[in-house]
User: What shape does this take?
Amino acid sequence: MIKKSKKIIALGLVSTIVAALIVGTSAQARNETSNDDTKQSKLAAYIKFTRILNAIDEQYVDDLNTSDLVDKALKGLLTNLDAHSSFMDKKSFKELNVQTNGEFGGLGISVGMKDNVLTVIAPLDGTPADRAGIEAGDIILKIDDKATLGMTIDEAVSIMRGKPKTDILLTIIRKGEPRPLTIKITRDIIEIQSVYAKKIEDDILYIHVTSFDQKVAKDVKEAMQENPNRTGIILDLRNNPGGLLDQAVDLVDLFVDSGIIVSQKGRDDAENIEFEAHEKESNIKTPMVVLVNGGSASASEIVSGALQDNRRAIVVGEKTFGKGSVQVVMPVGDGEALRLTVARYYLPSGRTIQAEGVTPDIIVHPGKVARDNNNSFMIKERELKKHLEKELEKIDERIDEKKNGKDKKREREKEKAEKSAKKEKEKKDKTIVTEDQIYDDAQLKSAINILKALMIIAQPKQENK
Assistant: This one.
């Protein structure tokens, strides 16, 4: 067995040396300044790699299959490049194709590596993870009984995906919680509506984009066409983990009529691409605010950053996730593939998104808005008489209640029920954002206030006649 392995390793050494020479030759063709020292150092590195493989094959306590050993080396190599590069064996590559082209049972959760730990970018609206209470920024400590420390994103996603209606336990660490939380989630087929359009009062169009699928730009355009009288727009990209680049570009193109939207730059000139805005049908005048948070990543960061750099919108909320790299999947034969980072995204100003994110123009943390009712007795002088008359009526009502207590009580209960029914109807109406929803969301309330100021400034000047 050892002799056979030695032969395999020896053949690998020969092929590695040949490959090194080929790499050296092609590198020289690209850059004639390459010197002999560079070639020698590359060759020495390849020989060292082969020697280590040989040593493991001969001396490791367990008998290893050489092919498996090389796969492990490749997985380690790609994982240590960055969090998004990986080597996919047959099983992993097949699962990727299922994820891309077919239906699968999942949680509806987008994850990434932040500070080398598996972190929730965002749960998607209406999915099992969202319903179970998973939040952006949660650190996943364990998946069922498996610790995530040292686990790759691909490995984590593979474990979390499974048959619909099966359960999974996530142990998470959440900021502000004294101890880890264990959350049970039931997998399901993930079907996502990406664009929700609602009205705020009479003049604001609220558009919530939960992810960037194939129809985002089209759906947002239709929402604007269906609401032509709106004089302000709020684009909510909070907890949006990204998606298709072309949809991010097309969405920005709806609001910007010239200049660069985003560019990607890599080592290979073929990866250096600029995506530019077009003048046709662009809405460049309607005042606009974009909402983001730590769950906004990738395509969401491209949209918010491009609109910010083009001074087309005010960005409100919290700093975004910081995922701005480009991956390609490269089949390497026999059902295997590499997912390799080949470029990074850059915003119109030239700044990078990767590991930096987008910093809002105005930082607003999540929470509720306090409603101050202490000013109810600050009455203007001209209203004082009317107010006192109403107070006297209340006293009279109390006297009447004692006489006809039951009738008055019924009337009040009826009035209370009508108000409650009206509020319930507002909640069920998915086309409007209610006052309660606004006051429960400090970021949205701030966005509305900022947008109203922009709308006032955008109004045409009135000439004195």
Notes: Residues 1-29 have pLDDT under 50 and may be disordered. Residues 266 and 343 are 4 Å apart (CA to CA). DSSP finds 13 helices and 19 strands in the chain.
